[in-house]
Amino acid sequence: MKWSISVLILLNSALVVVSHECHLAELAALQQPEHELSISTKWRVTLRAQPANFAVDWLLLERRTYNGQIPAPTIRVKQGDELEILLVNDLPNTTEEGKLNEPRFPDSTNLHLHGLHIDSKVPGDDVLIRIKPGQSYLYSYKIEDDQPAGTYWYHPHLHGSTILQVNSGMAGMLIVEDCRQNTSDQLKAVTCPFNCEHDIELLIQPLLTYISGSGDRFILVQDEYNDTLRGIDSSDTDCPNLSPGQTRQEWLRDFSELNHFTTNGQLNPNLTIIAGEMKRFRMVNAGGSAILELEMVNTVTGLHSCEYQEIALDGVYLDNPRRSRQNKALLVPGGRTDWLVRCNEPGTYIIRSQALNNDTPSVGEETRRFTGTLFTLYVSGSPQTGSIGTVPLPKRPSYVNFTTNTTLKTSFSIEIGPQLTLNREKFKGEHYFRHLVNVDEHVQWNFLNTVPKEGHPIHIHVNHFKVVGYERYEGPIGQTVNSGTFPNQPWLLFSQDTNLENRVCQCQHENFDAQYCSETLSNNTPLSYPHHEMWDKDVPGTIGYSQAGDYRDTIMVPPLSEITVR
Is residue 510 a part of any domain in this protein? Predict the structure, then answer.
C-alpha cells in the first residue's frame, strides 16, 4: 500500500512542498491462524491476555493480544465437548477505575464466546466477571449435542474496556465442527475436519485505522483510556519519514494515512486457487464499530465474475445455499458469514468492503462504514465451466428452526436512542433488567431505532433470533443537544406530529432536563425513510436489511426503522 506525507515549509516567503512516500507491503501469502483442536470430550485451552508487538512490514506496534498472537488461535470444538478455558491476565497493572458507562478497566478483562448456545452463568459465559491484571479464571463450557455447527468467535467483553481490547487485536475464531453423519458429501468436500485445505478462515479486524478525521482512529480510543501501551517502532530507517524533533507517536497521530482492516493479521494477503475448484470462506467482522459491505470483484472488469453463495449467517446454516442480494453481504461488528466460492475464469479478484451511496438509507449516513480491500484471490489454471451446483446443508435443531405461527408467550420492544441508550436509559449494572422470560418460551421482540441518521447493530448473547420483517416506523425521533461532551451530552425525543406546537415528547427519559423543552429538530433531519419499504427486495440500496426467515445473533437496525424478530 502506497501512502504519502506532505510537509509544508516556508523558506524566504516561498512555499515548498516536500513529499515523502513509504510502502507497507501487501499481498503476502494468506496465513491461517494456529489451531487449538478438540482432543477428547473434555479438554482445556489456555489463553494469556498479554501485550505483544504486532508487525505489518516495517511498522511495529504494541498491542493487547491473546498468547502474543494476532490473530489469536482458532479453537475448534465438537458437539458434546466439555471445554475449559484458563484465561490468564498478564496485562500491565495500570490505574483502572472509572465510572459506569465510561472508558475504564483498560487492562482488566474477561471472555465471551460469541454466538454459542451455552450457559451464561459462572463458570460459563458470564460477561460480568472482571479478571484483574495478575489474576486468572477457569471457564467451563458444555457444548450441547444440538449446538449448530458453524463459525463463531471469542473476545473480551468487560463493560468499559471491550472496544479498546477488541480493536487492539484480542480476538480469535471458534468453530463448532460439522459431524460426519449430518454433513453431505458436497459440503464435506470444502469443510474441515474432512477437507481442511478448502476451508478458509478469515478473521477481519480494524487494526490499522489511524487516518485523520476518522471517528474509528485507534489512537483516539487509546486517548480515552490514557493507554500506556503505545509502543511504535520501525524496522526501516527511512520509514516513517519524521520531521525534525517529531516522534513516531506524533507521526501516527497527526500525519499517517493508515486506514486498513487486516485479514488474519495481514494487510491484503493473497490466496491462490485453481479455476473450477470450490472453497469455503468463513468470514468474521472482529471489530467493534465499523460495518463491512462485502463483495468479490474481478480487478480488471469490476464484475462479480466468481460464483459465491451464502450457506450460513452468524454460525447457523440456511435452508439452502443462495446468492446474496446484489452480490453483497453486510457484516456488522461481530457478524459472520460463510460462503461457497467457485471461480471458473483465471485472473485476479479481490474481496473488499465497498460503501456505496445508494446503500446509505438502509444503513445510515452517520454509520461507520469501511471501504477498502480485505484480501486478494489469484485464480490460476485454464478456464472452466460448471457451477457450485446443489449442496445440501445440515438440518438445524428445533430452537433455530421454528415457524412464526408458534404461540407467543409475550412481546416487548427495545428502543435504540441517542448516546448509546436502550429503552431511554444507559446500562445500569448486572442486577438490573427490564424484561424476564422463561426458558423455552416463544417471545417477540421489536427493535426500534429513534436515531434519524445512524444505524445501530444489535447482538444478542446465547440465543439466536428469527427475522420476521420490517414495520413502518412511527415512533419518536431522538436528537442529541449540542451541549456537553460524550458520553454525557443531553438528548431528547421529538414527536413525528409536525402539527404540534411543541414537538418534544411528553414521555422523555429519566435524565431529561426541562430546560431543553424549547429545542427544535435540526434542519434536514429526516422524519422517515420510505426506502425501508424495499427491505425484502433484491434491488440496489438494500444491503442494510436482513431477510425474513434468517436466524441471526447480530443485526443492523437502520435509522428510523422497526424490526420484528422472534
Answer: yes
The tens digit of pLDDT for each residue in 464-523 reads 999 999 999 999 999 888 766 655 678 889 888 877 667 787 678 887 887 777 778 887
Q: What is the C-alpha to C-alpha distance for residues 319 and 551, in angstroms, rounded to an integer?
A: 11
Strands of 210-277, DSSP E:
232-234, 259-263, 270-274
Query: 434519524: which residue's cell?
Result: 452
What is d(CA 360, CA 355) in angstroms, rounded to the nearest whole number? 8
d(CA 330, CA 395): 24
Encode pLDDT of 516-531 as tens digits. 777 788 878 888 899 9
Domain CATH number, residue 161: 2.60.40.420
Name the β-bridge partners of 10.
15
Task: Cell numbers for 388, please give them.
Answer: 457450485
- Alpha helix (H) residue ranges in 395-451: none
Over 60: is that where the pLDDT of 433 sits?
A: yes
Q: What is the CA radius of gyration of the chain?
A: 24
- Do 423 and 414 touch, CB atoms closer than 8 A? yes
**Three-class SS of residue 308?**
strand
Give the whole-angstrom CA distance, residue 65 versus residue 85: 16
Dihedrals φ, ψ of 438, to 5°? Answer: -100, 155
Instruction: State the DSSP code for 289.
Output: S
106 prior amide bond cis, ω within 30: no
- Entry field: residues in the chain: 566
Q: Pick from 129, 157, 183: which residue ends a domain?
A: 183
Q: How far is CA 508 from CA 139, 476, 513, 519, in A?
A: 41, 10, 9, 13
d(CA 398, CA 527): 40
Residue 419 falls inside a structural domain: yes
The answer to the question of residue 41 being in a domain is yes
Round to whole Å and give the CA distance between 246 and 244.
6
Number of domains in the chain: 2
Angle at 458 between CA 452 and CA 462, to 5 degrees: 165
Q: Whose CA is closest to 230, among 75, 367, 386, 61?
A: 61
DSSP class per residue in 511-522: T--GGGTT--PP
Which of 183, 207, 235 represents a domain boundary (last residue)?
Answer: 183
Peptide bond into 490 cis (omega under 30): no
Q: Scanning the structure block, which residue is given the C-alpha cell 481490547?
A: 165
Question: Partners of 233 in the beta sheet?
Answer: 60
Cα separation, 135 vs 561, in Å, equals: 44
At residue 320, does pLDDT exceed 90?
Answer: yes
* pLDDT tens digits, 50-73: 999 999 999 999 999 999 999 999
| Residue 491, Cβ density class (10 Å: 0-12 exposed, 13-18 middle, ≥19 buried) | buried
Return mean pLDDT, the chain. 90
249-259: pLDDT as tens digits? 888 887 777 89
pTM greater than 0.90? yes
Residue 100 belongs to a domain: yes
What's the CATH number where 438 sits? Answer: 2.60.40
**H or E, element range at 165:** helix 162-168
Boundaries of domain holding 414: 396-566
